[in-house]
Amino acid sequence: MSWTRVGAVLPAVLAACAKVTAAEAGADAGPTEPTVASVDPQPGTVLGDAKFTVRFSAAMDEGQLVARTGRSETVVLAPEANLELAAAAIEHGALSAYERTLLLAAQPVIAPDRTSLTLTPDQPLAAGKFYLLVSSRLKDGDGRKLAGPGPRYPFDVAGPKQTAVLVTPAAGGDAPANLRLVRAFASAGRVSVHGPQGAEVAAADAHGDVELPLVAPLQAGARYLLAVDGAEDEAQSFTGSACARDSAPALEGGVARLAVRDSSVTAELTLDWPARVELQVGEAAAGDPCAGPCFKASGSVSCAVKSCGPQSFACKLSLRIDGLHAAQEYALRVVADDDLGHQLRGPLQKFSTVAALPRLILVEVMNAPPSPQGEAEYVEILNQGPGVAVLDGLALLADDGVSRHLLAAPPPLPVQLAPGARALAVGALFDPARYPTLPPGTPVLRASTHRLLGRGLNDASPQAFRLIIPGGVPVELSRFPGGGPKCPAGASLQRDESVPPDGDAPWSCGPVGGTPGAPP
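The structure corresponding to this sequence follows.
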């Protein structure tokens, strides 16, 4: 063999030897143990609705990841108070019933490739500290145990952020120079008002409504922010004005607008200034409604108004008093106090409650029947009793302010509706043949217009309207609030009939074709 030949062969021989040595070395080291590759989210602060994923370096034994209970007893969540007991429990076999109570209930989901498991807590996590624990007895698909002791990952769930809301002055408005009190609402925490350069000008501990007396006069043009536990809220701020206010709140038009029923009165108020309002109702013969026994209702109204220049009436409030007697005369007065020491005593307003009203309610609205729609639109009216109701003089009143009688012309005999019976209010084009299941004898009240409310009900979102007794002051018997859920084509909207006529009842989708003249 020539030296040239040996020189060419020797490197190949050495390379082959190197490969054998490397293979032998790997065999001696043994297979790699599985590990926890990552955790998501990272340990630290999390939200209460967080989910937790543990990723492994190899496909794991599925039977160990999820126990027969359907829960994981090797990858678990535990509150800090139960940490050591829970960590010890998951290091042996199946958990006892007591040991499972040490854990936070969570639903496990194994990835298809068995390299990760996700825990979704059954309930949002409460504020506090807890741990994600992984048992060291976990094995991969080849039977190799997890490397090292079972890891622990700490997490903190922050409590809900404390917030406060300005009541008066309203957020975005200004405040008169002589303001001495700020009103706010906060469920908890130390609420304060910060002025120029962050100086604290008022503070109090909050547990609901809170009063914040100012320790110094407001500076004209300066911005003031509400803060909770020192954290300012840019959205809850007002501006100091150069003007002082020296007049009492005023009522738009000088009086309250009244809506009277048989046993109640509702006062719609519009003021030019934030105030605490009391509605007083008593006997009409007395000079003062509360000279003797009287009814009261109260509330606060807040709005963003200007301290300087012309005042606008932007503070709206509705107050209602129940328990009145039917067909009786009463007197009403509005009293309003602001935080500057001014008081409004409105004029005496006399009114009479109406005679006992029929308990009629609007219970079904068919606004989008199959075409032609004018032949099939209807509104169903239910008499809840206990007496018979006369329908002749009733009308529907929509937001356009036009009162449209249910009947185009007075009938020769009164149309009576027995307790528990139903009637349909329809347009002149209505064809009862469109509803073969309409019970015989169901009163069908045809209006003078071809379709309901003149131009018909809106298909996508029916307009609001009321069932009223027309008059100088219309008496509302029932109302449809308008809108409602998106329903299948040809389905009606139906009211919860268990709610009284003057209550706010939910409306839901009825069956396709409706239930005219019949219960839902």
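The helical segments are 3-29, 62-65, 83-89, 97-100.
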